[in-house]
């Protein structure tokens, strides 16, 4: 079991959280997006080794937040409430 730090509720069991995707993966805007740009948004990931910024949701309180964690050790480096500033 691993504890994840919800910025709203404090440390909670990892089973209460759901992964939302890479932070900074901005959805293309508009109806006439080129197919390769849409495919890149859907399928291409940076998959870094080491520190990664990710979007998570705490299913208990329903709040989304950004968590930075090490993909090798799974150590959580930070977590912060999600706002326009942290999403990119």
Automatic annotation (TrEMBL):
GO process terms (BP): tetrahydrofolate metabolic process
Domain of life (superkingdom): Bacteria
InterPro entries linked to this entry: SoxD, SoxD_sf
A single GO molecular function term of this UniProt record: sarcosine oxidase activity
Coiled coil: none
Gene3D superfamilies registered for this protein in UniProt: Folate-binding superfamily (3.30.2270.10)
Protein's recorded name: Sarcosine oxidase subunit delta
Species lineage: Bacteria, Pseudomonadati, Pseudomonadota, Alphaproteobacteria, Hyphomicrobiales
